[in-house]
C-alpha cells in the first residue's frame, strides 16, 4: 500500500507543471465549451486527443448551427445556436491507471439536448486508453460480483425518484428493468487506489429523460478484486464495510 501511495505521490510531483484546460466560445451559430483536469493535462497523448476532439466539436457545432438556422429562417423562424459542452474530470488515479469521467451535452435543434457520462481509463504503463472490461480475467468477470448489488441500488433510487404512488409497468419495460452493463458507463474512483465503482445510466437507459442520469456508487469488494487480472490488482483496494 505504501509503495503504491509513494509512486502516486512521485507521479503527482513530476506532473506539477500541468494545468487544467478550459475553453469557451459563444457565437451566433455555436456555443462550445471544452475542459479537462490537471491529471489529464499531464498526459501528452491525451492532450493531443483532446485538442483534436475540440477542433472537431467546434467545426461540427458551427455547421449544425448554420444548417438549423437556414432551415428555420426559410420556414419563418429565427436563427439558433447549436451547443456542445464536454468536461473531463478526474474520478480517481493510481500509480498505473488514470480514471476520467467525460460529461457531455449537445443541443442540435431538437426538443431538448442530450447528454451523459462516459469513462476514459488510461493505462500509463501501456500508454493508451483501455476498456474497463480489460482489467479482468475475462471480459464479463466483473459482472457477477456487482450485478445483484447494482440492481438493488438502482431499484431503490428509482423508487426514491418516482415516489410512493408509482406503479411498476406503467412505463416502457426498459424503465423498470435492470440495464445490461453494455449500456452503462463503469468508472472506478479513488486514490491512491480505486475503492468505488460508479455505474452510470444515461437518460432513457434506466428511466425517462425527466429522471435524468442514474449514478449508482458501489464499493470495491474482495470478490471484485479476485476477478481482476493480477497486474491490475494493486490499483484497487476493497472498501471497508
Protein architecture, described:
The protein is an alpha+beta fold and 241 residues long. The chain has two domains: 129 residues, Heat Shock Protein 90 (2-Layer Sandwich), CATH 3.30.565; 111 residues, Actin, Chain A, domain 4. It contains five helices and nine strands.
- Principal-axes shape call: flat
CATH homologous superfamily label of the largest domain: Fervidobacterium nodosum Rt17-B1 like
Distance separating the two termini: 19 Å
CATH fold field value of the largest domain = Heat Shock Protein 90
> Any idea what the CATH architecture of the largest domain is?
2-Layer Sandwich
Summed up, what is this model?
The chain is α+β, with helices and mostly antiparallel strands and 241 residues long. It is built from 5 helices and 9 strands, in the order αββααββββαβββα.
Write the topology of this structure.
Blueprint: H1 2-14, E1 21-26, E2 30-36, H2 38-41, H3 44-74, E3 82-93, E4 97-107, E5 114-123, E6 128-130, H4 143-162, E7 185-189, E8 196-201, E9 214-219, H5 222-227
Task: For this entry, give a set of tags.
single chain; 241 residues; alpha+beta; Actin, Chain A, domain 4; six-stranded mixed β-sheet; 31% helix
Amino acid at each position: 500500500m505504501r509503495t503504491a501511495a509513494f509512486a502516486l505521490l512521485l507521479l503527482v510531483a513530476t506532473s506539477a507543471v500541468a494545468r487544467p484546460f478550459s475553453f469557451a466560445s459563444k457565437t451566433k451559430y455555436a456555443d462550445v465549451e471544452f475542459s479537462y483536469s490537471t491529471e489529464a493535462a499531464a498526459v501528452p497523448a491525451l492532450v493531443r486527443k483532446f485538442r483534436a476532439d475540440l477542433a472537431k466539436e467546434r467545426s461540427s457545432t458551427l455547421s449544425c448551427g448554420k444548417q438549423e438556422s437556414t432551415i428555420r429562417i426559410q420556414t419563418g423562424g429565427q436563427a439558433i445556436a447549436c451547443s456542445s459542452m464536454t468536461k473531463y474530470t478526474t474520478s480517481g488515479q493510481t500509480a498505473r491507471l488514470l480514471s476520467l469521467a467525460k460529461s457531455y451535452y449537445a443541443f442540435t435543434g431538437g426538443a431538448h439536448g442530450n447528454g451523459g457520462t462516459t469513462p476514459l481509463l488510461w493505462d500509463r504503463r501501456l500508454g493508451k486508453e483501455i476498456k474497463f472490461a480489460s482489467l479482468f480475467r475475462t471480459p464479463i468477470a466483473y459482472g457477477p460480483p456487482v450485478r445483484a448489488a447494482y440492481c438493488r441500488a438502482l431499484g431503490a433510487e428509482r423508487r426514491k425518484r418516482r415516489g410512493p404512488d408509482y406503479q411498476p409497468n406503467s412505463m416502457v419495460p426498459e424503465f423498470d428493468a435492470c440495464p445490461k452493463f453494455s449500456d452503462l458507463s463503469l468508472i472506478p474512483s479513488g486514490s491512491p487506489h480505486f475503492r468505488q465503482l460508479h455505474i452510470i445510466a444515461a437518460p432513457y437507459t434506466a428511466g425517462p429523460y425527466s429522471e435524468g442520469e442514474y449514478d449508482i456508487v458501489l464499493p470495491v469488494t474482495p470478490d471484485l478484486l479476485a476477478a481482476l487480472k493480477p497486474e491490475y490488482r494493486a490499483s484497487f483496494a476493497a472498501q471497508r464495510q
